[in-house]
Amino acid sequence: MDQSDIDQSIVVTGISTSKSEINLVKNTALQKCQLCGVSLSLDSNLNEANLKQLSTTYCQDDLDTVFGGNMDPEMELSISPIGTGFNNDTERSTNTNFDEDIDLSSKNFEPIFKKSIPPRNFYLCPTTITIVDSASNNQSTINNDQTVDWHSRISSITALFDMISSTTNIDHPLCEECADRVVNELDTQCKIVDQEQKDYQALIKRLNSQVPSDEEINELEKELALLEAEEKELQGQLEQAEKEESDFIEIKNKLLDEETNLVNQEQTFLLEYSNLKRQLVKMEENYESLENQHRNAKFHFDRLRSVNVLNAAFHIWHSGSFGTINYFRLGCMPDDKVEWDEINAGLGQANLLLYCLAKKIKLEFQRFRLVPYGSFSYIQVIENNPSYSNFKIGDECNMYEVKGKKYFLIPDKKFDKGMMAFLDCIKQLEDKIRTKDKQFCLPYKINSDKLEDKNSSYSVKFTSNSYEHWTKALKFMLTNLKWSLAWVTSQKNNASN
């Protein structure tokens, strides 16, 4: 209840307005229990004499301070006769055991400081007291003269309760049940404190009984000195180890720097290696390509080297009764007359072949000089010879005829002289070859203008000769050229091998 709710009066419900009831109000302090809040009635034995007797237990200054309302917090602490040795937050245990080692410094013996006392749960009215009858709802007022006697009494009681509350941990007044409960709790705390005191005394005795002797102290001092010396030695070793550690750390940092440099160099070298490897692969590919080209070129070279140019350029063979050179037929048969254009071309090829063979073996013909000129080839006379009286220097002996379709009916002496000179040149080639190879011999012997075959001979002249004999003589002439060509080719192959 707040002070503003009182309206400077005390309201009491359920009380009659008789004189006895007014006396009851005078003898009753409007107090409440500070724990449970139950309204309290003062004992009738609490009179003025008893109040004065209780007041003598405290000094007069304290009473004046309390009753005057001038007590500060420091004085409030100084007049506290009761206090526990432990903080409110400290838990007490009835099973205290000191068999184990206890650190006495861990105990905090701090006093409990009282908090400010809350206001009493009663209210005084300096002027009037209003009595309310619950039955009749009538109010009666007690005059100031009637309340003067018990006003001082209530003030004394209130001051006494405040002083008691300030000297203990418990606020007063209390009801009987709460007081009993508080007393029981205080008894329990006292027992706990007594038990702790006994435990502490036992611990102190035990510690006093365990005090070492002088000999033990000397041994411990010696051991301590040894330990200190060992500590100094270990301290020195520790400093040395720390110095070595710093040196090792410095070396490690240097090695890490070197490792970084080596890693960078490795990366650079790997990059260069990759570039060189790529170039090597390209070079190997180029090398393999060149090797393939070389093998291909060598294959073609060997194949071409095995091929004789003269054999490839001058193919001498036969076609029935005719001898052929590069597929040009030489001769004429009654039933198969060959055109002079074909014969002239074949004789031109024969002239060129003999000219090439002579150059291969470095032969210079006597009396005659070959002039290969295709289908109009001829032989020129370069000196006189008694054996060939009808040949004069400067004569050109033709190896071709231009007669038209009826040329076989009219003979030409220049053509016969050219054929005789051609046989003489073949004879000179044979003689030159025999100087190098005595075993060499042409299959058909040459005698003037004839080629001999066992018991028969055939002339190369066209005049006064039959078609068959003239054709056979030209065939024998090509055979002798083929043999000469084979010998020259074999000599070239032997030289190259």
TrEMBL record:
This entry carries the following GO cellular component terms, namely: phagophore assembly site; phosphatidylinositol 3-kinase complex, class III, type I; phosphatidylinositol 3-kinase complex, class III, type II
GO MF entries: phosphatidylinositol 3-kinase binding; protein-macromolecule adaptor activity
- Asked whether the UniProt record includes Coiled coil among its keywords, one would answer yes
This protein's superkingdom?
Eukaryota
Any idea where the Atg6 BARA domain is?
304-489
Under Gene3D superfamilies, the record lists: 6.10.250.3110, Autophagy protein 6/Beclin 1
- Coiled coil region boundaries: 213-300
Q: Name one GO biological process term.
A: mitophagy
Provide the Atg6/beclin coiled-coil domain boundaries. 173-297
State the UniProt keywords alphabetically. Answer: Coiled coil
Q: Which family does it belong to?
A: Belongs to the beclin family.
What is the name listed in the Swiss-Prot or TrEMBL entry for this protein? Beclin-1
Please spell out the taxonomic lineage of the organism that makes this protein.
Eukaryota, Metazoa, Spiralia, Gnathifera, Rotifera
